[in-house]
């Protein structure tokens, strides 16, 4: 692997041009923004937060331009030095975005659980690996790397005993308890592919994910508990897998009480089997490009897709971005405080794989930001000595609403870096985070990324001050561009466009499970040579990036990603519904709320509206989960705005839902323009 530290090329404006980061000739401001970034690298930072040295392995010792020019060497060097490989790789980046191919370190071999556990044992066996902040704040538990190892090895042996082999998919339907980490790493240990399904998903949603993954083994718990409320997880799973012979074993962890029905021959209490199993299970040697996990996520169509992440590149990228964005060092003693759920990508990358790869303890937060009081987060920060903190704008907005009296400054002295993820952070929330939580001093990292990218792509550099609401800078080796409708790159500053990526990074998803064509069509087909993110963005006059939100039919509700088509499909299962169109609308707490325009069949037009609204909400909860429950159900009794060819004009519905009706754009192509007036009048009654 070529050494990056020996490379000391002075990158010129011509290089900028060649990389097409921007046309430097026409954009002095953008060039300056890149130079500022480079000036700010730790060795040169004077009087600013210089940060400790990460040795010569961390990409922040490179200028951004170097990181792009030598991106393959940079990632290769980081991967070689940071991970423990069974067999070193000789191939580095064999990606080809124009063909939808992403491949890194192909001939290397390693095991993810070995990287997250075994290699830390000789020196850090008794260090805390997991800090479990249970729903009840008095019952927190700490699990050392040694205990993590014992549990993961035993569970891996249990999985094997239930017939799980390399490459098999295991569905994990668990709340935030140590078992979820044991399960993920036990799968990784034996080369099985985990598919974690968020515990807030309904039985119907879990069933379709189990079916798609073809899992024979499912891991769950008797119940989950959140904000003091017991949620019957096993019961939901039982409904999900009713008459589904494909599921041969249900391994059930005990969380609340063992008082759940167990189907003999299928369901077992897994702790009993773990106690009897050996605490030693040899880790499989996996290819760097072997799948580590599937994670289902929403797109523009109704069917969630199982994105496939692989082993070597993913671990490299999650560890590297954790270091770069959060200034985490190997074996740092403070646990990393990511409050996300492992049911989503943030939990995979920054609760589990990133921190544990670096031998850093990690927080598992089982509760909610407001239970038992809105000081919960700050109590957790204080009690567990957290200095790097990561949450969502929705949580922040909820806490802002609860009032500043709940923020105990003295408890937050340690906090130095405050991250935000999952949805755009509004300027007010950003400022509150900075001033009230961070005491004006902490660094705010608004991090943009996606399930598909595996790790953070755009975030402010540690040495920069940041702007309220801007994700700011591409991370080392990341090359974002803005495209116009024809797919041409938009150069210069003070411009907006579709956000795309022009180079493959190691942590990107490799395919959609069992549907590679869908992967290619969704992300690479629209504009050849680019990965299309589905987000829009603006590059401001200083060259900094602002994410403006999705440009497709995906919405972000409390940071949970949801396809509007999924909600429409659910609504359409109700016999009264003729057609439904669902859009997002601005919501003060959730970021986006769910606004459903529903046209009823003539036979149902006089049904009691409130009763029907309740039934429809219930249907969505049952088909998807409680988090997808509609905020507004608007019966569009005179119809939906359509083009003459019968296509619903969502652009207009989005504006109506947002109450943004001054400028509806061109409505001349509508087949029945009068429905718009009816919809506006009704919307104003509803909101
Ligand atoms: C949105 C979550 C604005 C975006 C890691 C993206 C953001 C989608 C930000 C991915 C941010 C994520 N600012 N929007 N900092 N971070 N998003 O797959 O629309 O659950 O495409 O991954 O969330 O959601 P996902």
UniProtKB/TrEMBL annotation:
Q: What Enzyme Commission number(s) apply to this enzyme?
A: 6.2.1.1
The superkingdom listed in its UniProt entry is Eukaryota
Question: InterPro entries in the record, alphabetically?
Answer: Ac_CoA_lig (IPR011904), ACAS_N (IPR032387), AMP-bd_C (IPR025110), AMP-bd_C_sf (IPR045851), AMP-binding_CS (IPR020845), AMP-dep_synth/lig_dom (IPR000873), ANL_N_sf (IPR042099)
Q: Which GO terms describe its cellular component?
A: mitochondrion
Q: Could you tell me which residue ranges the AMP-binding enzyme C-terminal domain spans? A: 566-647
The biological process GO terms on file are: acetyl-CoA biosynthetic process from acetate
- Write out the entry's keywords from A to Z: ATP-binding, Ligase, Nucleotide-binding
Q: What class of enzyme is it?
A: ligase
Enzymatic reactions? acetate + ATP + CoA = acetyl-CoA + AMP + diphosphate
The Acetyl-coenzyme A synthetase N-terminal domain sits at 63-116
Domain (AMP-dependent synthetase/ligase) ranges: 119-503
**Bilayer-crossing regions:** none
NCBIfam families the UniProt entry points to: Ac_CoA_lig_AcsA, PRK00174.1
Q: Which family does it belong to?
A: Belongs to the ATP-dependent AMP-binding enzyme family.
**Official protein name in the record:** Acetyl-coenzyme A synthetase
Task: Name the source organism.
Answer: Capsaspora owczarzaki (strain ATCC 30864)
């Amino acid at each position: 692997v070529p050494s990056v530290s020996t490379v000391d090329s002075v990158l010129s404006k011509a290089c900028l041009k060649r990389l097409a980061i921007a046309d430097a000739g026409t954009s002095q401001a953008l060039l300056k923004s890149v130079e500022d970034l480079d000036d700010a690298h730790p060795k040169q930072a004077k009087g600013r937060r210089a940060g400790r040295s990460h040795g010569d392995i961390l990409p922040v010792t490179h200028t951004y331009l170097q990181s792009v020019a030598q991106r393959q060497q940079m990632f290769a060097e980081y991967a070689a030095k940071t991970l423990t490989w069974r067999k070193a790789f000789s191939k580095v980046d064999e990606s080809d975005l124009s063909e939808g191919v992403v491949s890194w370190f192909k001939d290397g071999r390693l095991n993810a659980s070995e990287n997250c556990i075994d290699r830390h044992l000789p020196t850090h066996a008794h260090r805390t690996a997991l800090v479990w902040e249970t729903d009840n704040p008095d019952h927190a538990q700490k699990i050392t790397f040694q205990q993590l190892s014992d549990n993961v090895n035993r569970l891996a042996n249990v999985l094997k005993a239930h017939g799980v082999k390399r490459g098999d998919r295991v569905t994990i339907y668990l709340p935030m308890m140590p078992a979820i980490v044991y399960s993920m790493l036990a799968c990784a240990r034996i080369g099985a592919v985990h598919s974690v399904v968020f515990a807030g998903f309904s039985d119907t949603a879990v069933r379709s994910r189990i079916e798609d993954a073809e899992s024979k083994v499912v891991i769950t718990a008797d119940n989950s508990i959140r904000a003091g409320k017991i949620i019957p997880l096993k019961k939901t799973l039982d409904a999900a897998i009713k008459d589904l012979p494909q599921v041969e074993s249900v391994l059930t962890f005990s969380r609340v009480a063992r008082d759940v029905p167990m189907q003999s021959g299928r369901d077992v209490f897994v702790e009993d089997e773990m106690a009897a199993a050996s605490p030693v299970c040899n880790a499989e040697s996996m290819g760097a490009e072997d799948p580590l996990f599937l994670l289902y996520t929403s797109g523009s169509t109704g069917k969630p897709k199982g994105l496939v992440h692989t082993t070597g590149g993913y671990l490299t990228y999650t560890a590297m971005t954790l270091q770069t964005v959060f200034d985490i060092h190997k074996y740092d003693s403070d646990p990393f405080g990511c409050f996300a759920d492992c049911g989503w990508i943030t939990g995979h990358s920054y609760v589990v794989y990133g921190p544990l790869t670096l031998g850093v303890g990690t927080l598992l937060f089982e509760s909610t930001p407001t239970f038992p009081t809105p000081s919960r987060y700050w109590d957790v920060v204080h009690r567990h000595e957290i200095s790097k903190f990561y949450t969502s704008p929705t949580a922040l907005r909820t806490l802002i609403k609860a009032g500043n009296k709940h923020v105990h400054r003295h408890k937050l002295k340690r906090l130095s870096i405050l991250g935000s993820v999952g949805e755009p952070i509004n300027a007010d929330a950003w400022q509150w985070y900075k001033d009230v939580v961070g005491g004006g001093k902490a660094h705010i990292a608004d991090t943009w990324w996606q399930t598909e990218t595996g790790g953070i792509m755009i975030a402010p550099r540690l040495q920069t001050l940041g702007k309220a609401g801007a994700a700011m800078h591409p991370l080392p080796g990341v090359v974002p561009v803005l495209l116009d409708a024809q797919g041409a790159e938009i150069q210069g500053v003070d411009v907006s466009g579709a956000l795309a990526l022009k180079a493959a990074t190691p942590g990107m998803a490799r395919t959609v499970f069992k549907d590679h064509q869908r992967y290619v069509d969704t992300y690479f087909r629209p504009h050849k040579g680019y990965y299309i993110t589905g987000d829009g963005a603006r590059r401001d006059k200083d060259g900094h990036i602002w994410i403006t939100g999705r440009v497709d039919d995906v919405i972000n509700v409390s940071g949970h990603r949801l396809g509007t088509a999924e909600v429409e499909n659910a609504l359409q299962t109700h016999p009264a519904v003729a057609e439904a169109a669902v859009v997002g609308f601005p919501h003060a707490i959730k970021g986006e709320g769910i606004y459903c325009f529903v046209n009823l069949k003539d036979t149902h037009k006089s049904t009691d509206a409130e009763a029907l609204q309740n039934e429809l909400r219930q249907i969505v909860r049952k088909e998807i989960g409680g988090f997808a429950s509609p905020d507004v159900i608007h019966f569009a009794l005179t119809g939906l705005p359509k083009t003459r060819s019968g296509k619903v004009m969502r652009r207009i519905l989005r504006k109506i839902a947002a109450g943004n009706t001054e400028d509806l754009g061109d409505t001349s192509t509508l087949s029945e323009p009068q429905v718009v007036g009816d919809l506006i009048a009704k919307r104003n009654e509803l909101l």
